Structures are given as C-alpha cells and as structure tokens.
Amino acid sequence: MKAVILAGGLGTRISEESHLKPKPMVEVGGKPIIWHIMKIYQHFGITDFVICLGYKGYVIKEYFANYFLHMSDVTFDMSENRMHIHERHAEPWRVTLVDTGESSGTGGRLKRVREYLGDEPFCFTYGDGVADINLGELVAFHKQHGKLATVTAVQPPGRFGALDITGNQVSGFQEKPLGDGGWINGGFFVLEPQALDYIADDSVTWEFEPMRRLAAEGQLMCHFHHGFWQPMDTLRDRNLLEDRWKSGAAEWCLWD
Asked: What pLDDT, on the 0 to 100 scale, is given for residue 73?
C-alpha cells in the first residue's frame, strides 16, 4: 500500500520557520516532521511514499537525494574527490517526489499524483501532523466497509487549562482538556482511487467540495481515534512537539 503526503503548502502560520523551508521540513528532535510521519507509516509496514511538492519543493528533493549524508557518518577525500559513507543508516523507503504546483489546492495536489497510485486503495495525510494512530486498524476498517473514503476523526486538545468550579469555589484544575466534544478531520485518510474523480482541477480544496460530495453520497466513513494527535500549525505547536520529544513523552514515536 502507498501513502500520499501533502508537502506543498506555504505554512504561513509558522512563517518563523517556513520562510526558509517548506513546513514538512521543520524539525522536531533534529528530524523533519515529514520524517516522523513516514516513520509512523513504516511501523505499520507502509514504506512506499508519494510526496506532493509545491512551495520550496527543491528543499525536500535535496533532503532525500542526500539522505545518506543526513543519516550516516561520512569521509570526504578531497585530494581524490571521493566520498565514503560509513555504516549506512536508512529506512527501507521508496519515495516518489512530484511537483504539484506552487498554488494548487490540497485536492489539486492529490489529483496530480493519480498516475503514481495504481488501482489499489492508498493512505493519504498532511505533512505537518503526528499521532499515535493505529494505521493497521484504520486500513482494515476502510477495507471492511467498502466505501470510497475513510477519514480519521479526532478530538483536538484544548489550548488552555480549565477550572472545575462549583458556585464560586474552584475545586480542581484540568490541564488542557479536550475541546468542546466535537470531532474534526484528523488528517489520516484511506482512499480508493475513484475518490479522486471528485476533484475537478488544481484549484480544488480536498476538504471542501470533494469531501462534502463524498459525504452526501454516503461514500465517506470515519474511524475514531481517541489517542494522541497534534498538528504543527504554529511555532507554538512545533515547540510543544519538541518539548515532548526531549522529555521522552513523544507518543507518536511508535517505532521505539
């Protein structure tokens, strides 16, 4: 099974980092966030990736082109113009990098990689969020229900702590409880290739017309995820993930 990762947006809400690199290349624990996402998929046996490039896509191309240099010790023999890589450390990934346009919508990017996907169902996610999601269960659920699309539903954490109050008496404090109880798009999908027929052109945003049409026609199912989930929309989000990594509480690191 293949996994498609969106990696072409501008990342304007994390411009402190994204003015130099695409948001999926912003680092957590010394590795780009897209690396963390790919490791989650690898944990469940999914190692064939199609990455949708756009803004500063060359940065991602250069990262994978020089992956051994990033991951291994290396000796440069300047006198002989030779390079020797020691103890090569690399994941068993096959990575297809596709230029999907600077200004394409999320749906447009997805439609542009159709030729690389074949006729089997595939996974699809954004290049800026992690979770301790069980992708094996997600894929099995998708295959069982027989519809065109499955979206992972999550409840986002609250941004602030909450007071437990009785009258005017504070009886307790909840550190960042879940939000208002609503379920939102958690960004981990499984799709049939026919779902891409719901995307008209490059300008289409996947989360609008295609998902709404799929839902209206009874072709969109949701799989509930009750565990850890965290997008990296802002510098604050990135710092939160970095803190969890450093403290050893990085719940999404299923491969450890």
From this structure: 83
How far apart, in whole angstroms, are the C-alpha atoms of residue 69 and residue 84? Answer: 10
**Average pLDDT over every residue of 71-76:** 84
3-state SS, one letter per residue, for the chain: CEEEEEECCCCHHHHHHHCCCCHHHCEECCEEHHHHHHHHHHHCCCCEEEEEECCCHHHHHHHHHCHHHHHCEEEEECCCCEEEEECCCCCCCEEEEEECCCCCCHHHHHHHCHHHCCCCCEEEEECCEEECCCHHHHHHHHHHHCCCEEEEEECCECCCCEEEEECCEEEEEECCCECCCCCEEEEEEEECHHHHHHCCCCCCCCCCHHHHHHHHCCCEEEEECCCCEEECCCHHHHHHHHHHHHHCCCCCCCCC
Q: Which residues pair with 51 in a beta bridge?
A: 5, 97
**What is residue 160's predicted lDDT score, i.e. its pLDDT?**
60
Which CA distances in Å does 198 have to 51, 89, 112, 120, 224?
20, 40, 13, 17, 24
Taking the model in full, what pTM does it have? 0.89
What does pLDDT average to over the chain? Answer: 90
Residue with tokens 């103890």: 87
Instruction: Take residue 247 and report the two structure tokens written for it.
Output: 């403290």
Q: How far apart are the first and last CA of the chain?
A: 22
Kindly state the tokens that stand for 37. Answer: 């996402």
CA 5 to chain centre: 6
Determine phi and psi for 129, rounding to 5 degrees.
Answer: -150, 145
Tokens coding 49:
């990736």
